[in-house]
């Protein structure tokens, strides 16, 4: 049987919501570059950072650099990751080039701290919106994903290593101070990207093991309006009483990080010895997630 050839999903490419997110993201990234970063020799990470270094040091056109440097990364994405994703990413890059070429955005400030913070915020919002729209404007994310699958390093380790090299070159070409401000810009952008992609309400999986499992289930569902999943298990097996164990329901629910503390306090009023563990969740979809009613304010 011949392997299935993935085709471009043009319906996804031209989805109105995706296009709006990409267009808004590109505009935010353009504002970050032209109003904050470029006039003050500040860098972002990834391909954008490399392009800015070459542009400022060798006076090569930035738009040309963005296309040329991203090209090999998108070739890898086409072969190894997905064709629809690659088309959306290429569209994002070319749209950014067009905006930078034809839209004149005045410099907002020359205060270095404001540039690092607000330039990073605008760039992070832009990148996050583009990612939510299905694309990228930075080929480094492609190479990070590819090498993560083929090496023992995590994505964050690869990203930190590659961007550390960029900041090292920034220090060599523009001085230590410019490199430090660029690092501040970069980490602000990363944090803002995470907020946009994952949401300000970071979801958390809360798992509870309690001898009062029926009361805990009723509390979470009826009082806090949360859906639960229940696993059949056993509690006990303590070091001093290993032979003593009891069947119980292991309860798991998904809440926001702002709700974790309130729910834990309410459960401890039912069972002061209840056992909890908390896990961060990257993405939640489907089911009952939002709070639909609560008597605990």
UniProtKB/TrEMBL annotation:
InterPro entries: DUF2179, N-reg_PII/ATP_PRibTrfase_C, UPF0750_membrane, YitT. It is a multi-pass membrane protein. The chain crosses the membrane at residues 20-42, 62-78, 85-103, 115-137, 158-184. Keywords: Cell membrane, Membrane, Transmembrane, Transmembrane helix. GO terms for cellular component: plasma membrane. The keyword Transmembrane applies. It comes from the Bacteria. Residues 246-286 form the DUF2179 domain. Pfam families: DUF2179, YitT_membrane. The keyword Cell membrane applies. Gene3D superfamilies: 3.30.70.120. This is Uncharacterized membrane-anchored protein YitT (DUF2179 family). It is found in: Cell membrane.
